[in-house]
Amino acid sequence: MTEYELAEYLMTLLGYHAEGGSSELQDFDTNIAGDIISDNLPVDITADMFANEVLGFAMSMESQGKA
Question: What's the whole-number mean pLDDT along residues 24-33?
Answer without folding.
Answer: 70
